[in-house]
Amino acid sequence: MLKMSQNAFKTTKTQVSSADNLSTKYLLQGWYIRQELAWVFNYLPLGLKVLNNIKSIITKHLETLWAQEILMSSLGAKEKWEKTGRSGIDILFKVPTSESNNNYNFLNPTHEEIVTPLMSEFIKSYKDLPMAVFQTQTKFRNEKRAKSGILRWREFLMNDMYSFHTDQESLDEMYSKVIEVYKNIFRDLGIGNDTYLTYASGGAFSKYSHEFQTLTSLGEDIIHVDKDNKIALNNEIIEDPSVKEEFKENQFVEEKWSEVWNIFKLWTKFTDACDVNYVDKNWKKRRVYMWCYGIWVSRTMGIVAEKFLDEKWLIWPENIAPYDYYVIRIWDERIDEEAKKVIEKLENIGKTVIYDDRNIGFWQKAKDADLLGIPKRIIISEKTLAQGGIEYKSRNNDIYEILSIDNINNIK
Amino acid sequence: MLKMSQNAFKTTKTQVSSADNLSTKYLLQGWYIRQELAWVFNYLPLGLKVLNNIKSIITKHLETLWAQEILMSSLGAKEKWEKTGRSGIDILFKVPTSESNNNYNFLNPTHEEIVTPLMSEFIKSYKDLPMAVFQTQTKFRNEKRAKSGILRWREFLMNDMYSFHTDQESLDEMYSKVIEVYKNIFRDLGIGNDTYLTYASGGAFSKYSHEFQTLTSLGEDIIHVDKDNKIALNNEIIEDPSVKEEFKENQFVEEKWSEVWNIFKLWTKFTDACDVNYVDKNWKKRRVYMWCYGIWVSRTMGIVAEKFLDEKWLIWPENIAPYDYYVIRIWDERIDEEAKKVIEKLENIGKTVIYDDRNIGFWQKAKDADLLGIPKRIIISEKTLAQGGIEYKSRNNDIYEILSIDNINNIK
User: Fold this and answer.
1) Lowest mean pLDDT among A187-196, A216-225, B53-62, B305-314
2) pLDDT of A51-99, one tens digit each?
3) Most confident of A269-278, B96-105, B223-232
4) Helix, strand, coil abundance in chain A, percent, nearest 5
5) Nearest CA in chain B to A133
6) CB burial of residue A74 (10 Å; 0-12, 13-18, 19+)
7) Averaging pLDDT over each range in A55-59, A147-151, B268-272, which range is the top one?
8) Residue A317 within a domain
9) Are residues A152 and A266 in the same domain?
């Protein structure tokens, strides 16, 4: 239980930001995030809880793939980036090692350069494959033109997974499994119905690549969506003759969506550069195949916030809400004892609670409950007790119910 | 359950490091850590699990203080460090913002410069105080002379807490509570008996400062220890006349210990620089007082590893071990079914298990169980089944017991 009377963090009365999207404004108006530098944010207690919930959901599902969690460093050697030919990309932050010479390292914006040589120590035989590692880690990208507040930050959390394979067939098998696992993740995040696997251009490595896009007013990408068949095409491939042919039966609508996940078929790009091989059943040396997959964790917070907000501010899906219940005590300390009984019951069934026991007006408390987007609100007062218990309301509707305290455990 | 047959990570046959301490050698020989740059490490699956366990223990106890968890950014504005007069300290890594000008930010080595202005937005009245925030976050320090492998890294995890107060009395009250909470943390980490509150020199802010030091062969600090009275003095104050007088009855032994925690009585150093005030009960504006407290999380992994290792490698205390059990199947697949029954029983009571089902020699499996330091080992074979069940052995003794599979739940 977090008691508001002992909590220094407060909502602000007015919007403190000129951000171009509502979710960032509301996350700033509540005590979720604060800007530190341009496109660099600190997470206040509520924001960190949302991030941790997103991270837990992702981790739980990735572990069903036998993928193992690791944590790679943020500082990366310049030589590793030179080896793969990417030391010149403009999003790399340089970190000079001393004043007196021109040596520097990079802040890793992604970890292919680190994970490939790291895993090459362990991958020796076909028996070691397939294998996958993932991490949830702070990434640094010196984006020149960061857009839409929460969507492209210079320092952000990403979940990146890397899988290693003997051949194309093993890659494809992993790919099918990952798609299913990611669908489960998006379902648990509360965005499953509006998040589609989307065909995009494949870049250097293959005809198409894949990404998961979700419908949001923050959308950066124009996506052609066939909602009946749950198929989506990125705008960049829509004019391709073979795409036109393949999807000629489908009816597409143009909408702005946001990328929440992407997959890069790296094939042997990095294992070539780092000379990573395995020995097959016939003792023949072969090149390891590799894929990488990324979910934008910080961005997911913004996308989910934007997706569900209403004219009364934030609304969190239950699985990622920072707290389950916002319990408002109306007025005097006599109510305190009954309120604590209610909270104890909720905590005994594993629910988390903000207890608003402040000596301030009811409307300020109710406004905070709405602004912060806590899924379930309970009011307890002399009046509700006289009516038989507490007043219950869900954040995403306007149905008010009086429930007896004994029935609290049965709230759906 | 982690099945070793599906795990690419392996121990190395020989020591791969010239580190000056055994724990770093063993952490490298097992699949705990790998060096990325000088004094910058990647955490492999077992190392990350140990780190996360340490982090969970710390977080659980700090929450009993009503402290709230936040996550501040790694990139920090140069101007904030200039404001407090610390922009010239030599451990600061600079991060240029572009090629074309001399602007840069810093990688924060500690977060007073960030947390003080951050909290000044929320601390307005005496009613907002005391309050405390903490984080477990990656710190970057450009240490010129990093010593003892795991002890002083350039990129490492630290738990740093910052508390804000109306006055000296409130500071002192918090201090007493924190000392008790930290003792509980060190107890749960398994180092409670050998971790003492130690008096050190106070620097600019007070006569003495305090740190927790723990006994280890990696010790960097000479500590004068009175084990009967559980009092310790840092070497730097031992010649002070008032110290000599105060502790004249105590019998001290000189030993090398390692700092795991320190506390800095910042008083108003940072709140002066950032002009952080509150309004007292009489509507008078007053300066906020501030303390900070830090536990070295990565370092704690090294210290605990060093403290408990034996001639057969690592031994983890149960609370922070990466897995609880190492289950070895001897030979054929017929045993597999019985082994899985055992593992299911263990998992049903919340235990975590490495299942060594590899088709390799027994001695290699037993060696891995010992090297990795997993607290409890179970062997299951035709022979143990014939004797009545499984063979159980704890990592920290040489008592072998045959237990029936039904009795597994009763292992102490």
Assistant:
1) A216-225
2) 999 999 999 999 999 899 999 999 999 999 999 999 999 899 999 987 6
3) A269-278
4) 35, 30, 35
5) B45
6) buried
7) A55-59
8) no
9) yes
B398's CB contacts (< 8 A; 6+ apart) are none
C-beta separation of A259 from A221 below 8 A: yes
Alpha helices, H only, A194-313: 241-246, 269-273, 297-308
Task: Single out the residue of A92, A115, A95 nearest to residue A105, CA to CA.
Answer: A95
Q: Give every CB contact of residue A261 below 8 A, 6+ residues apart in sequence.
A: A182, A211, A212, A293, A294, A295, A296
* Pairing state between β B376-380 and B325-329: parallel
Lowest mean pLDDT among A328-337, B153-162, B338-347, B360-369: A328-337
The one-letter code for the residue type at A105 is N
- Chain B contact set for A48 (CB, 8 A): 69-71
Is residue A47 domain-shared with residue A97, that is, in the same domain? yes
What is the model's pLDDT at position B204? Answer: 46
Across the interface, do B36 and A119 touch by the CB < 8 Å criterion? Answer: no
Q: Are residues B246 and B377 in the same domain?
A: no
* Residue B193 and residue B290 in one domain: yes
Residues of chain A positioned with their CB less than 8 A from the CB of B93: 95-96
User: Are A72 and B42 within 8 A, CB to CB?
Assistant: yes
Is B7's CB within 8 Å of A97's CB? no
| A 74-133 near B (Cβ less than 8 A) | 74-77, 93-98, 105, 107, 114, 118-119, 121-123, 128-129, 131, 133
My answer on whether B288 and B349 are in the same domain is: no
Domain that holds residue A402: 325-410
Interface test with A, best of B44, B101, B159, B164 (most A CBs within 10 A): B44
Instruction: Identify whether residues B229 and B270 lie together within a single domain.
Output: yes
Please tell me which residue, A374 or B408, carries the higher pLDDT value.
A374
Is position B260 within any domain? yes
CB contact under 8 A, A129 and B8: yes
Other Cβ atoms closer than 10 A to B192: 13
Between CA B381 and CA B369 the distance in angstroms is 16
Q: Which residues of B touch A94 (CB under 8 A)?
A: 95-96
Q: Dihedral (C-alpha) B337, B341, B343, B347: value to the nearest 10 degrees?
A: 140
B residues 133..152 contacting A (CB < 8 A): 133, 138, 140, 142
Structure tokens that stand for A245 in this block: 């042919």
Provide the token pair at B197.
Answer: 């509150």
Distance CA A409, CA A349 (A): 7
Cβ B9–A122 below 8 Å, yes or no?
yes
Last residue of a domain, one of B250, B281, B308: B308
CB pairs under 8 A between A and B: 135
| A144 phi and psi angles, rounded to 5 deg | -80, -30
- Which tokens belong to A408? 């609290």
Tell if the CB–CB gap between B68 and A2 is shorter than 8 Å: yes
Burial label for A312, CB within 10 Å (0-12, 13-18, 19+), is middle
Please say whether the beta carbons of A302 and A151 come within 8 A.
yes
Residues in A touching B34 (Cβ below 8 Å): 118, 121
CA distances from B119 to B84, B116, B208, B273 (A): 16, 5, 27, 14
Contacting residues of A for B51, CB less than 8 Å apart: 71
Q: Contact A48/B34, CB-based, under 8 Å?
A: no
Q: Which residue of A has its CA nearest to B115?
A: A42
Domain shared by A153 and A223, yes or no: yes
> Of the candidates A9, A42, A123, which has its C-beta nearest B114's C-beta?
A42
Which phi and psi (to 5°) does residue B236 adopt? -70, -15
Whether A10 is in a domain gets the answer no
Q: Give the domain CATH number at B385.
A: 3.40.50.800
Task: Report if residue B334 sits inside a domain.
Answer: yes
